[in-house]
């Protein structure tokens, strides 16, 4: 007879019971509404291509990569509170490594992508180690500068970087056009598909579903890590690093782990990106002024909700939708300024991010979960007793508070 | 046991059902794929049976019209085609070229359209972003059915459409970006990327060669013996700076300053102090993003040196108004100016453009106008030479563009693309400034014979495109034997 202590957390003493419990948890009809909505979102992503033409598939495919980048940022900045302002550095290391291995060393992307991922991990280690000695504002400054230094290196070693990139890093125009993972018949891609228009359709689909599969894989891995005891330590570091140390845990090791994990994820996504829908160049990967992609990723996470992993995905969708909606308002003129709304991009999005910071620092995800709970409570005739919809103790609030505290310490030391 | 077996059985069924439905859903989605365009294949034109009607030219010579009944769509890939001067010039000039061809036929052949085929222009806005350029290229080719595209300003944007170009086998003719990489890639991977051509401007290595040639001929004549070089630190200027650096010292007594200035420079006073204290005659610049502040501060501070080189803002007609005339005396290389007569067709084009759009185009406009007409003429000649009655395939268009020389240009008298074996393939053939007449050296001047209330974009070099002498800043005190006082 099984005792209570023998029973697994899933509620069963035998493997059959545990299996049954798992299946019950996986049963969509038994899930909480927020999980059902999440599943519906995934089904939506799976079915999205059926509503699009191949020439319209580029934006959603890019969006999936942005989601991966935002998740990679969230695991280090959203969870541990170590604010990184230059996360695109990792995407670029992954992307450039794989592209240069392909173009200048003849190494197939099938090998180049994992190598790019690993090198990005090394990059995470190189930034993570000094990060252990730097407090919030200083770390943020370092991460802000790093992608700019990287962009300068691209120009400095434009024509040659001995051994590593004999033909150089390609300056502002990038090292060239790496082999595509998917392409039409005769295109020289790793996997050649049909010829003609069918090939174009299949290529668009293959790129999309590869990106979707990768995004879901990263989501599952990051959810598993952040919902494990390691994730609890990440959160504890954000909330009170001294308490973590007092509990006998080595916060430095966990911070380093978060940095490397984040870098590996970003590097993997960056490496696949350059072999599907992005050409490696500073403008393409790092964005405008070598910093725009890093900022976009932060905005997505803030919009969706930092410290949740799922939030950045929702933030990325909001980000993309707002770009489409605002971009479509080219005929709507603002009377006094005499400027089309579409020309104001990205101001409306930045305003939305500011509004989120002020009115719903937990992000769209948390605000909607709370709103849903209030509606359900109201439907049951109960009184909603949770945190206010927009406010409450959010991860972002904690990050900002941690940042403030570190700033205060620095100022006090100076005095 | 019974319970257990039931449980196992039930769990198995549940699992199988779950996997079955999940698998079926996924497979169905993938099998369904994405939607299919009516005009698949990126072949880029609506085809209706070709006719064989003939159209008479004004001289009464019958012009065969074997492509009658076809509509050929072409796309413009321009940054902000409604407002940004480089993008606006591309789109406006494409419309003018299409109207000319539809009304008067192919240059030198006549008729209407391309041997009867009507051209239809479509606009794409790249927003100077590589990702958007790719989106817009795919939209124009796959959705709108464009057979060819023209434009692209940044080389990163051009490169981003290389793979879609390859997949759809669509010809793209670059008319604004100067980076040499596309031409290099066409040379190295010809079979994959032979679809790319550039009608102009000449690439940045050639721009540097043109500047060296200009300095070699004119530096002494203009009284420049010592020079400073300040080139903005942005990608398009990289090959330019690389080429200039080892050579420019041979053309002057001294070059005490050779720097890449930051693309974020707002305060030019320290740099102008450095150049002035080096006691140079001429400050050679390469400026695109920082040019406005640089010119204002140079003029307002009455600096003791002349200034020019590649100054992108000065190529825009509205720049005079923007800086309230502070650009007077600044010179820049350009493809064409509102005053130059690169060919007999240049001024008529400029006047028509002015009448229609109430401004003058920047370099990307005339180059796009030439590119569209060169493309049309290559198609027409290919059809006639091969006695065809259908629109040539894109593969055939590559061959046509490689084969034929276009001799009705408004920037260059003739356009011939470099062959695949050239280091930079499918680029405009360019030898020397003094042979081809381009680039022209434009200087903002005051010329009341042309207009009494606005600056004039005169050209002082090369000789065949000269519209005025070089003028010297009136605040500099030159010695009596200086060319300024001759």
What is the level-2 CATH architecture name of the largest domain in chain B?
A: 3-Layer(aba) Sandwich
Walk across the major sheet of chain B and give the strand order.
10-9-11-12-13-14-15
Secondary-structure-based class of chain B equals: alpha/beta
Beta strand count of chain A? 4
Question: Could you tell me how far the N terminus lies from the C terminus of chain B, measured between alpha carbons in angstroms?
Answer: 115 Å
Q: Spatial order of the strands in the main sheet of chain A?
A: 1-2
Q: Summarize model confidence as the mean pLDDT of chain B.
A: 89
What is the helix/strand order of chain A?
Answer: HHHHHHEEHHHHHHHEEHHH
Q: In terms of structural class, how would the helical and strand content of chain A be classed?
A: mainly alpha
Mean pLDDT of chain A: 85
**Beta-strand percent range of chain B:** 15-25%
> How many DSSP-defined strands of chain B?
15
Oligomeric form: heterodimer
Segments of chain A where pLDDT lies below 50 for 5+ residues? 1-10
Main features:
heterodimer, A: 415 residues, mainly alpha, two-stranded parallel sheet, two-stranded antiparallel ribbon, 4 strands, 65% helix, globular, B: 486 residues, Rossmann fold, 7-stranded mixed β-sheet, disordered N terminus, transmembrane helix (chain A), transmembrane (chain A), branched-chain amino acid transmembrane transporter activity (chain A), cell membrane (chain A), LivM-like (chain A)
What does this structure look like?
- The complex is a heterodimer of chains A (415) and B (486).
- Chain A has 415 residues and is mainly alpha-helical.
- Chain A has a domain of 229 residues.
- Chain A contains 16 helices and 4 strands.
- In chain A, helix 3 crosses helix 12, helix 3 crosses helix 13 and helix 12 packs parallel to helix 15.
- The termini of chain A are far apart.
- The N terminus of chain A is likely disordered.
- With 486 residues, chain B is α/β, with parallel strands linked by helices.
- Chain B has 2 domains: 248 residues, Rossmann fold (3-Layer(aba) Sandwich), CATH 3.40.50.2300; 182 residues, Rossmann fold (3-Layer(aba) Sandwich).
- A 7-stranded mixed β-sheet of chain B has the order 10-9-11-12-13-14-15, covered by helices on one side.
- In chain B, strand 2 and strand 3 form a beta hairpin.
- In chain B, helix 2 packs parallel to helix 14, helix 8 packs parallel to helix 9 and helix 14 crosses helix 15.
- Chain B is globular.
- In chain B, 52% of the residues are buried.
- The chains are: A mainly alpha (415), B alpha/beta (486).
- Chains A and B meet through helix 1, helix 2, helix 3 and helix 7 of A and helix 1, helix 3, helix 4 and helix 5 of B.
